[in-house]
TrEMBL record:
Residues 125-153 form the Retrotransposon hot spot protein N-terminal domain. NCBIfam families: Trypano_RHS. Residues 1-61 form the DUF7578 domain. This is Putative retrotransposon hot spot (RHS) protein. Residues 143-163 are annotated as: Disordered.
Amino acid sequence: MKLKDFLARELGGRGVVDTNRSVLLKEFFKDPNKCIPDKGLLKEIQASDRYARMEGTVRDEMDMEEDVHKLYKNGVHTLLKWSEAAAEVKATVHGITNEFLDVAFEEARILTTTSAPEKLEGLCESVYSARWHHVVEVPDDKGMGMDVRRGSHRSHGSTGRLVTPSKRMTMRSNPVHRVPG
């Protein structure tokens, strides 16, 4: 956010001059006297609750930005790298950043250990993940075609049983049903 936007929103535009229209808030908080030439107005701005809240927010962001640069410089680019980082590396960041990263890693660790897919003992993956489908004859402009349709265990004809396989049938398909057309 720019200083002019903050002054316009929070203080009705008081303090905005040509020289501070493009100044970022983080630059303003580094040296407020440079951006607001009127000392009386600057003291009034700095005494407001809005100023204190915004200064705290901007300084927190500046600290986080500084911490990100330090971590990247030390090769910490992921939560896993954070968990493996030496105590000296972790000591270079602000306390709040350290706490955030520790909590984020712990939450990620818990999610990955509790969200593992359930595997049934003694079953092949293909059987465990099987779906019911069947082949149907579909009339088209060239005669009869075939189509695979989703189904359920009740889609095997009126008897509900599979036909007896012949030597020419493949065991991967279900019986063919005619679709009125």
